[in-house]
Sequence to fold (377 residues):
Amino acid sequence: MKTSILLLAILFAGCSGDPQQAAAPVAQALPVIALSNSSETTFIEYPAAIQGTVDLEIRPQVSGTLDKIFVSEGAQVQKGQPLFKINELPYREAVNNAKALLHAAQASLLNAQLEVEKLTPLVKNKVVSDFQLKSAKATEESARASVEQAKAGVAAANINLGYTLIKAPVTGFVGRLPKKQGSLVAVTDAVPLTQLSDAHEVHVYFSLGEDDFVAFNAKYPGGNTAEKLKQLPGVALLLADNSVYGQKGKIDMVDGQFDKQTGSIALRATFPNKEGLLRSGNTGKIRLSLQHENALLIPQSSTVEVQDKMFVFTVNDSNKVSKQPISIIGTSGTNYLVSSGLKSGDRIVFDGIDKLKEGDVIKPEKMKEKPVQTASR
Fold:
């Protein structure tokens, strides 16, 4: 009986203890990083289309049968090199006919000149009237005009004869050859004989939206567009496989107006292409670099997005966390560049923020090494 009473007394004493004496929750141990300013470069990429400095459609200027094709598809040709030969026989005969007309006109002129020479002394001696001489001189002038017209006919016929041999107007690469030897070609054909692209340099076209263009203009010094273009650094070209083209390009043209449908403005960068790696019709991306002095970088894993706003958990001197909104101006690898909301020296929770709520007290753990920062976009 005494033992039972003693056990009851102990249980009663334990149940009647003060609730405030319950053990406090254990603080979470989470990695924390301290922020510091640094100089960072970020990149903005824009889809781009590549064209040769000269892209030409090679079309016949006379009609006829395609007798010869001197090149193959994709071949590199030099300026002045023959490409196609159209049957020249009709045009050579046209030249011969024009020459015959010229000879006839010259004979008529000679005959008119003789008539003037014959009448001139007769008019002086008043054997014939002055009217006959004037009429003979008019005939002479008409014959002279016929000679000039015949000469022009010979020149035109020779030009058409020359058009039967089609030569490369520029150095470049030959495109597809839809017409085959023996095909009938005409000036009115909808499809050209081929396309020729001069790609020793290439033009890469890309577009900026209105906001980007305003920022683009504000970044570089100069009173006008021409002065700003001189100040621009070289730009990089990303190829379709995301590799970076080996040489830098230079932005050398800004379109005169915005496209009303897209709200963007076109810019052009020129790249050297001596090896012929780039061809007209290629696509890629133009990469513009932006330098940020005294930038604050934070890992993307340290942020949480709520209703289109970005937050981090800052840690105060008492190791209490607070949810802090921040503004992002760009990315650098797996990091964000912060424009406002944080400053150098602030501490933020690096990882495990999904376990936190406002006002929690944590046990900070130092990072073993600083997260790798690789500039990319």
The longest strand covers residues 37-58.
